[in-house]
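Thread title: Can someone regenerate the structure for this chain?

I was given the following input by a collaborator and told the matching structure tokens would be attached. They weren't. Posting the sequence so someone can regenerate them.
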Amino acid sequence: MSEITLPKKIIKATRKSPGKLVIYSSPKTGKTTQLAALENNLILDLEKGTHFVDALKIEVNSLKELYEVGNTIKKEGKPYKYISLDTATKLEEWCEEYATNLYKQTPIGKNFKGKSVLELPNGGGYHYLRQAFVFWLNFVTELADNVIFVCHLKDKFISNKRGEEVAAKDLDLTGKIRNIIAAGADAIGYMYRGENSNLRISFTTSDEVVCGSRTKHLAGQDFEFSWDKIYID
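Best answer:
Regenerated them for you:
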């Protein structure tokens, strides 16, 4: 190991804007339209959702294609300022087959005859699903300095601080996978339609909405949607 030099003074921050941004909303809110409007943003379309928008986009129909597209991006010197994965929810679906193959490569799983690793008793297959998702999450993250993960919204019911049951907005991902993508994100924004159908995004955490930000200019904010307000570097 090379000699380590410990810092003797405050080291300034190297970023202001989120490198990993998660955006989620109800269907047809306008996520894809906004992704198309972001300059030099390549949309990796996993759900055939960009057919009606003009955009920098490429349709990806499998993990094999995602691997090929990602390697081509790397070979060409990562030419995009932004990469958007639309959606992380679909990526998790694809990872089930990948996770099953991972399990079959282990000594304990080599004789597995089921269709999905999630058939394993006591939730044993979710360990392999998380492994698969983390691999592909990291793969996409390496494709640009700024990566946007789009997720679907899942409504769930929770008890608030007053003991009342309320509907909460959350990422439509499996429990610990949701925690993995949330923990790695610099900001999580909930996109919605406000008064007069204006498109808004919230980074304000509450009992009812899962969101937040490490970046100072977004933390606790709720505003009419604008990329210029999100990316300020």
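The mean pLDDT is 87.
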